[in-house]
Amino acid sequence: MSHPKLANIFLKNEDRVNWHDKALWFVREKRDVAVNKVKGWEELREVAASIKSNVLSNLDNYLLQFEENAIRNGIKVHWAMNATEHNEIVLKILQENGAKHIVKSKSMLTEECGLNPYLEKSGIEVIDTDLGERIVQLANEPPSHIVLPAIHKRKEEIDALFVEKWGIKGGNGNAEYLTREARKHLREKFLIADAAITGVNFAIAENGGFVVCTNEGNADMGTHLANIHIACMGIEKIIPEMEHLGVFLRLLARSATGQPITAYSSHFFKPRPGTQLHVVIVDNGRSQLLGRPEFRKSLHCIRCGACLNTCPVFRKTGGYSYESVIPGPIGSILGPGTDMEKYNSLPFASTLCGSCTDVCPVKIDIHSQLYKWRQIISPKKGTSIKKLAARVTGNILGNPKLFRLSATIGTVLLRYLPGSLMKNLTAWGKGRELPKVPKQRFRDWYIKNRKE
Amino acid sequence: MSKNEIIASIRRNKPSLIELELPDYQQFREDIDTVSLFKQQVNEAGGSVIECNRGDIEKILSDNYQNVSEVYSLIDEFNPLDNRSADDEPSEYKNLDLVVLNGKFGVAENGAIWVPDSNLSQRIIPFITRNLVLVVLQMSLVANMHDAYTEIGKFSEGFGVFIAGPSKTADIEQSLVIGAQGPLSLTVFLV
């Protein structure tokens, strides 16, 4: 389904829309407060963007350097061309070690690859351990936001979900009570896990280490208890040097939630003695995107979610209206790059206000890219009606007599036809008010006043 | 092999080399009181700070944590009875009430404290405990994350973590709950 059709479903519940809008705007405001406290924020974004530009122009060498250093540290490195290969590699590691119970911390890449259903098909239990992700997993839904996966759910719904799935007593939607119940449930899962899967926020070429950021401590609870840690990363997660973490860690949490840093920024270099540490490096279309100069910069993304929180269209239409793994403005430029047919409505889910570009910590020109995608998609979509309309309008505006005639017709129609009929003639009319018909037209006024 | 394919595809598609500029971290330097900013940031992250002398740590801990049964400490000043060793399974630590560790240094701009493998006997202990106490030297504080990585320098250990406050979540309707999957509390002894 297209974005407008899916958005209509979300828009049916006005209370939820208003709440969703406000909740995300609140996060955006927290971001502003945090950002304004940093001296040289704009320069910091510049530095981050220039590091990312260098990374993309030297990506092959950085990846090889990372691999060499990681192997030296005892990490096993795997390469996957696409989602299928990624899933096969992970399954093979698990099966070779007889691992049946898996705990997973947040990773948009494994969502992109459809890892969970793939592993479950082979009889492996996968538990998402980020609270928001656990909530949507229990509800059998995908995350609706890349940082706040369950932001579309109200607390009463979460309460009912926990009661149904865990047989606990209801807590009237009390967030603290529900969080404690989830903590008990997840503790049991951590303690019996055979393997832990995490994403990667940053991978460091110069020393083969990588960093995982969480607030809940779930990545650490998983990885330091289980005997196997598998970290999955897209090829674009590389940064050249350890000191560059200083730049990105300052930007990431402030942009995401308005915190100066996440509660845990865990740096992994070597496996814990007697255990295995695997890194799976995934391409899945990224190197193709690298070859498109006008869209290349979208590979700068550090998945902070700031562009989602600030976007008026995202706030009002929710993550599910996008249907892509990554929703919102950044998803609307990444989506068409992977499947233009499927995601051809996404670049139009924007007012092009440019707020996404303003908040992006790594300076991706998101709204310009949205516009560029429109230029590619429009000629391929059946837009003959728009072309016809433009031609007719052009003719009318170019001919004074024709213009006056149609203005008269328009005024009469506005005055005497019911508004409901007029408004439903085009998509633009829906949800908007028609202009009031003035008593006198400007042309009549002008002629009259000039004569006097 | 996929590795060769990926590398070849990147080489075909990447732009010509854009040089890595040497970032000027001096421009982010601020005139701040590192001690008061650090305290403020630990509090904002949901933790608390106790300023004291090293000699007072044991008494304060004994006074503040009277009802805890399982305690594990890796600081010289505080030695509760504990028979666990580094060779134990990490799950042995599942009932810990209190863990006391040395932090390597603290960061004023965000209240984060660096805890590397060498300050831990097992990586799991600062995460699995209900309450965490980190001892940080006042003179170890650095201003921001750029200074923090200068301080870490060439890192040759297996693991290290910046800890800022206790574990937390706001995944239920954006209401902040302190104590998610990791510790329910963090106390920093600033000595």
Low-confidence stretches of chain B: none
Q: Would you tell me which CATH topology of the domain at 38-284 in chain A applies? A: Rossmann fold
Query: Which CATH class of chain B?
Result: Alpha Beta
What percent of residues of chain A adopt helix (DSSP H or I)?
40-55%
Description:
The complex is a heterodimer of chains A (452) and B (191). By secondary structure, chain A is an alpha/beta fold. Among the domains of chain A are: 247 residues, Rossmann fold, CATH 3.40.50; 57 residues, no CATH class. Helix content of chain A is 52%, strand content 10%. In chain A, a hairpin with a 5-residue loop joins strand 5 and strand 6. In chain A, helix 3 crosses helix 12 and helix 16 packs parallel to helix 18. The N and C termini of chain A lie far apart (60 Å). In chain A, 48% of the residues are buried. With 191 residues, chain B is α/β, with parallel strands linked by helices. Chain B has one domain: Rossmann fold (3-Layer(aba) Sandwich), CATH 3.40.50.10420. Chain B is 23% helix and 20% strand. Chain B contains five helices and ten strands. Chain B has a five-stranded parallel β-sheet with strand order 1-10-6-3-2. In chain B, strand 4 and strand 5 form a beta hairpin. The longest helix of chain B has 12 residues. The N and C termini of chain B lie far apart (55 Å). The chains are: A alpha/beta (452), B alpha/beta (191). Chains A and B meet through helix 2, helix 3, helix 4, helix 8 and helix 10 of A and helix 1, helix 5, strand 7 and strand 8 of B. Strand 9 of chain A pairs antiparallel with strand 7 of chain B, so a sheet runs across the interface.
